[in-house]
Amino acid sequence: MTQDNSSTGNEHVTLVDHATGNSYDLPVIGGTMGPKVIDVRKLYGQTGYFTYDPGYTSTGSCDSAITFIDGDKGVLLHRGYSIEELAENSDFLEVAYLLLHGDLPNKADKEKFNTTITYHTMVHEQMMNFFRGFRRDAHPMAIMVGVVGALSAFYHDSTDINDPHQRMVASHRLIAKMPTLAAMAYKYSVGQPFVYPQNKLSYAENFLHMTFSVPAEDYQISPAVARAMDRIFILHADHEQNASTSTVRIAGSSGANPFACIAAGISSLWGPAHGGANEAVLNMLNQIGDKKNIPEFIARAKDKNDPFRLMGFGHRVYKNFDPRAGVLKKSCHEVLAELGVDDPLLELAMELEQIALQDDYFVERKLFPNVDFYSGIILKAIGFPTSMFTVLFALARTVGWVAQWNEMITDPNQKIGRPRQLYKGETPRSFMSVNER
Ligand code: SDX
Q1: What angle do CA 8, 13, 18 make, to 5 degrees?
Q2: CA 388 to centroid of ligand 1, rounded, Å
């Protein structure tokens, strides 16, 4: 394949099929930043070939203007703003507005958006019945998959995806109700009564209040913890076309309602290779237990015959530090100091990171700590059980999923997602009756 950057501006690459001697010009399209793409939409029609890319390691699935990642430089931008600046200077609902609408809100728009979200935080009272159908020991992610999908049974007036107003109402409802449902999942698991949202509280304060307050006494919200919670939400808000976002997009491409699409995203995020890694990191650190055991686990992570992987390390895109991990590592120290928590797991995590980053296996494969490596230690210090970690990831990522879903629905090039395959099964054969087999 050769590239031609002809001055006419119609950049293309030429594919030569040596089996037939035919050659094909494929357009090259550039965006505002990042790799250009080879437009293969007509490849099958022209050549009879499919492309082949299991895991989509080299495939752009869509146009998007929401998030940009440079994996080699460890850069993450949301609508052009760096994650470091947003984490330092913005707040989660402002980032949600930015992801949804493309620009940071002015003061009036900010207040209007915050008020809109605040007044959607309650859920239909009958939603409680779903929770009571689960065993008390149900994993909160199992509950979230169920109850978020069930929202489509209650909010029929915001399921018409072709109505811009209904799309925005559904978007606001999802952003507003995820903390309420997440807190209810936690309360159900510990046998405490559900706590209603308080409109006078901020988004993060409301979530902490619904999660940790009990009717028997006043609950004092630590401003430092609320700020840390809000920052953790910002760091998990969106991340380009990751597995769960791609799941939301492909579910939405069939015209499914937004609540069902977000439930699909929650399901995908649950996997330990994706959002479930934050829970897996804490389980791994507890399994390692002591610094003296680190070499054994490093050896296991390198052993191809051992399925064990160093959870919280590695990333499909980042071949440098995940910028979110750097912010979370700094927050870890701040929050634990603020709470007066001396968690030996933090020391263990830092020792593990230091040893891994000096090991050729991890260095050669560019396996650095990712967003999940430090987040769990902060969440544990705040008081969340490990089983709630991925629920918090889903809560935050809902704003990204909703923004990407809206972008997909309004994309004029949008089509139902329907990949093909390399078939390796049986060639045609005749049916034989059971007596002949
Ligand atoms: C998230 O995509 C996103 O943006 C996701 C996310 C988001 O915000 O949405 O960033 C959130 O999901 C972060 C990732 C959380 N997952 C984990 O921490 C689980 C542990 N990490 C791995 O499972 C893995 O690194 C992945 C899944 C994250 C990425 O896997 P890839 O890109 O498919 O890489 P790979 O499996 O092809 O690995 C390349 C090599 C292999 O070795 P070789 O075959 O080349 O010898 O690196 C090795 C792998 O065995 N490797 C690891 C490893 N991760 C990769 N070896 C040990 N421990 C690891 N963690």
Answers
A1: 140
A2: 22
> Could you report the per-residue pLDDT of 152-163, keeping only the tens digit for each?
999 989 999 999
370 lines ligand 1 (CB under 6 A): yes
Distance of CA 309 from the midpoint of ligand 1 (Å) = 9
Cα–Cα–Cα angle for 274, 275, 281, nearest 5°?
90
Tokens of 349: 């995590």
**What CA–CA distance (Å, rounded) separates 156 from 260?**
12
From CA 120, how far away is CA 110, in angstroms rounded?
Answer: 16
Taking the C-alpha atoms of residue 200 and residue 316, their distance in angstroms, rounded to an integer, is 41
Query: DSSP code of 219?
Result: -
* Beta-strand relationship, 75-78 and 81-82: antiparallel
The two tokens of residue 273 are 């290779």
Round to whole Å and give the CA distance between 21 and 215. 77
Contacts of 311 (CB under 8 A, 6+ apart): 272, 277, 280, 281, 283, 284, 372, 373
Q: What are phi and psi of 16, to 5 degrees?
A: -110, 125
Contact 373/353 with Cβ under 8 angstroms?
A: yes
Q: Report the C-alpha gap between 298 and 286 in whole angstroms.
A: 15
CA torsion through residues 381, 383, 387, 393, sign: negative
Tokens matching residue 221: 């919200």
Our answer on whether the CB atom of 253 is closer than 6 Å to any ligand 1 atom is no
Predicted model pTM? 0.95
Q: Is the pLDDT of residue 281 over 60?
A: yes
Atom 40, ligand 1: which residue's CA is nearest?
365
347-364 mean pLDDT: 93
Quick check: helix, strand or coil at residue 415? coil
50: alpha, beta or left, given left = phi > 0 and alpha = psi -120 to 50? beta
User: CA-CA distance, 4 to 15, in Å (whole number)?
Assistant: 11
Strands 2-4 and 67-70: unpaired
Whether ligand 1 lies within 6 angstroms of the CB of 365 is answered as yes
To test the pocket of ligand 1, the residue of 238, 283, 313 to mutate (highest count of ligand atoms within 8 Å of its CB) is 313
**For residues 28 and 37, is the Cβ–Cβ distance under 8 A?**
yes
Residues 338 and 211: their CA atoms lie apart, in Å, by 20
Res. 8: pLDDT tops 50: no
Instruction: Provide the 8-state DSSP code for 308.
Output: -
Give the Cβ contact number of residue 256 at 10 Å. 18
